[in-house]
């Protein structure tokens, strides 16, 4: 597997520091699990963070700090999984970071394109889903109302910024408009963190968007 597209260093630093929300962190973790280069960067950021922490002078704790921590733990509800997650796409295993995240059923959103939900804690209207598109599919021209972070799990697509194959990471925001085209050959499956939905640019896309709920 040759991976050509990676998260920015700022994104990897935030991931290493644990400051990304669950949705973004899951997509980055999936890429990192597939990319030895980014695993090295994350280890380096974690090392730097550890050194800085070691050099930070200790601060005095409040007298009731332990009681407050225990009380907070008691208020956290355990995660609810309606069913065991499916960890395969067809006969292929999914990356390890997806273990424990419940997956919804595949739903059609258009000719050759399906999506399924991935269970994470939603923050700032950011959610995670999988998209599956048949070879040769041309996805609608669209722009973003927020971020769209994508990790390709299998297959490949192209748009104006290049080709994205297995393991590649695409980091888009409100400034990006594109029209991805799925390559011939394999079905393309992607893990996507999506904030605020997408804005389809054609009149037909705007008409059907309320029906597909993406």
UniProtKB/TrEMBL annotation:
ChrR-like cupin domain span: 105-194
InterPro entries: Anti-sigma_ChrR, Anti_sigma_zinc_sf, ChrR-like_cupin_dom, RmlC-like_jellyroll, RmlC_Cupin_sf
Name of the protein this chain belongs to: Anti-ECFsigma factor, ChrR
Species whose genome carries this gene: Bauldia litoralis
Origin: domain of life: Bacteria
């Amino acid at each position: 597997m040759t991976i050509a597209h990676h998260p920015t260093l700022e994104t990897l630093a935030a991931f290493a520091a644990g400051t990304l929300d669950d949705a973004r962190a899951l997509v980055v973790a999936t890429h990192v699990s597939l990319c030895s280069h980014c695993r090295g960067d994350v280890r380096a950021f974690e090392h730097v963070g550890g050194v800085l922490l070691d050099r930070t002078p200790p601060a005095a704790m409040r007298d009731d700090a332990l009681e407050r921590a225990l009380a907070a733990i008691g208020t956290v509800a355990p995660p609810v999984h309606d069913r065991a997650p499916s960890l395969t796409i067809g006969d292929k295993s999914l990356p390890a970071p997806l273990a424990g995240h419940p997956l919804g059923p595949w739903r059609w959103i258009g000719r050759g394109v399906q999506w399924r939900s991935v269970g994470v804690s939603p923050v700032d209207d950011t959610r995670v889903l999988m998209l599956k598109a048949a070879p040769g599919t041309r996805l609608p021209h669209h722009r973003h109302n927020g971020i769209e972070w994508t990790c390709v799990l299998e297959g490949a697509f192209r748009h104006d910024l290049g080709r994205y194959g297995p393991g590649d990471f695409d980091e888009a925001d409100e400034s990006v408009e594109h029209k991805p085209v799925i390559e011939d050959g394999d079905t393309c499956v992607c893990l996507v963190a999506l904030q605020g939905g997408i804005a389809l640019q054609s009149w037909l896309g705007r008409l059907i968007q309320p029906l597909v709920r993406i």
